[in-house]
Amino acid sequence: MNSKDKKKEILDKIFLKEEDTLKELEMLVECSQEHFKIESDSGNIIFNSDNEYTIKEKITFLLISRYFCKEYGIIEDNKLDIGDVSKSLGIPNTTLSKPLGILVKDGIIKKDNNKYSIVHHRIKSFLNTKQER
Fold this sequence. Notes:
The chain is of the alpha+beta class. The protein has helices at 3-11, 18-33, 55-72, 82-89, 93-105, 123-131; strands at residues 36-38, 45-47, 80-81, 109-112, 115-118. The protein has one domain: Winged helix-like DNA-binding domain superfamily/Winged helix DNA-binding domain (Arc Repressor Mutant, subunit A). It has a 3-stranded antiparallel β-sheet with strand order 3-5-4. The chain has a two-stranded antiparallel sheet with strand order 1-2. Helix 3 (55-72) crosses helix 5.
């Protein structure tokens, strides 16, 4: 094996391949199904058990569902403002400010131009904490 091929073989370990990202997506969907479903026409989230989740968890699941909707092609933008979050979850805006701030501070969601979205690489760790319950 020549030097160039050896370098490529070593570097191959750090590059994501399409099959890896699809496998990861499949795992995220399987873990998410335990907690919610998504209406295929509207993209609305339906919790499997509404009462067992904190407001922060509901927000996070909502933003994960929006990520899935964007990947599926139902929506073009997965970002929601506080009013959209309020409407989707049926929770008053005033109750959402603090949990949204904590989620942003913790790096689970991000805020851009007063709109919130899930930090993609944090989905797996969030779902793993929910499985440990």
